[in-house]
Design goal:
The chain has about 270 residues and is mostly beta strands. The chain has a domain of about 160 residues: Roll (Pnp Oxidase, Chain A). It is built from three helices and 15 strands. Strands 4-3-7-12-13-6-5 form a seven-stranded antiparallel β-sheet. It has a two-stranded antiparallel sheet with strand order 1-2. The chain has a two-stranded antiparallel sheet with strand order 8-9. A hairpin with a 4-residue loop joins strand 12 and strand 13. The longest helix has 9 residues. The termini are far apart.
């Protein structure tokens, strides 16, 4: 059986209650011990700085725990949470396509649209992406969380990620499907994902634990199931997930919209 490991980051996830800077760090690959996103009831729970779930109304804020005024200083560590957990698909001629679960992914430029992913050199997908210069970032819904986690703890050298099946709480069986990308030659999209971001590598930046792949976004594939009657894409309906210190969470309730802090009342 393949070694249990984290989505792109490699080392085992620190246990709950871990103090950042204490010698173990969370990597970009999502931990195999990470908790699957729960029901919509649990998804609105807040996440503390340590990554622990707190009951509703207990997070920082006007109705939560007041700031103490005292601060602890930890050694350098990765504590930028929550982050998206995404499934990165890739492939090359003569081989089955692969999926890598990544938490170290993000936007780096708006115009032109560019993203980055950081991948350990030991990962199966590292060589595939390096050789073809292509990958697809597929957003993950609550329904896809189990598959996302599984793809992060199994190696494409040992298993076919697209052959994995899982059952959701409603009893339905699911399986990921590789679809042909719109503008890439090698990397497939995951058809069950609501949004697939097709990327072409522009630069590889060697780092110590990871290599960062900087890429141009060549196009975005969106599932028509999430368009409303007016033709607008409603991403909220997708019920996307976030990853925080070894656990998966639903996004929970909406707090505001961009610019709401300066918007005049009545407008």
């Amino acid at each position: 059986m393949a070694e249990r490991r984290k989505p792109d980051g490699g080392r085992k996830m620190a246990p709950r209650g871990y103090v950042p800077g204490g010698g173990k760090s969370a990597d970009g690959e999502v931990s195999g011990r990470a908790r699957q996103a729960g029901s919509r009831k649990n998804s609105s729970a807040s996440v503390s700085a340590s990554g622990r779930r707190q009951p509703e109304g207990r997070g920082n804020g006007s109705t939560g725990v007041p700031a103490s005024g005292c601060r602890q200083v930890w050694r350098a560590g990765n504590m930028l949470y929550p982050v998206p957990a995404v499934m990165v698909s890739c492939g090359r001629d003569g081989e089955k396509p692969n999926i890598l679960t990544v938490a170290w992914a993000g936007t780096v430029c708006s115009d032109p649209a560019m993203v980055s992913i950081s991948v350990r050199k030991s990962r199966c997908s590292h060589d595939i992406i390096g050789e073809t210069g292509e990958f697809v970032i597929n957003l993950v819904t609550e329904e896809l969380t189990k598959a996302c986690d599984w793809c992060g703890v199994r190696s494409g050298r040992d298993v076919d990620k697209f052959a994995y099946t899982w059952q959701t709480e409603d009893g339905r069986q699911h399986r990921l499907t590789a679809g042909r990308a719109s503008k890439l030659e090698h990397a497939p999209v995951i058809l069950e994902s609501p949004v697939s971001i097709e990327c072409r590598v522009k630069q590889v930046i060697p780092l110590e634990s990871h290599d960062m792949f900087l890429a141009d976004v060549v196009c975005v594939d969106a599932d028509e199931a999430y368009f409303d009657e007016k033709g607008r894409f409603d991403l909220d309906r997708a019920r996307l997930i976030a990853y925080s210190h070894g656990e998966y969470f639903g996004l929970g309730r909406k707090i505001g919209t961009f610019g709401y802090s300066v918007k005049k009342r009545g407008k």
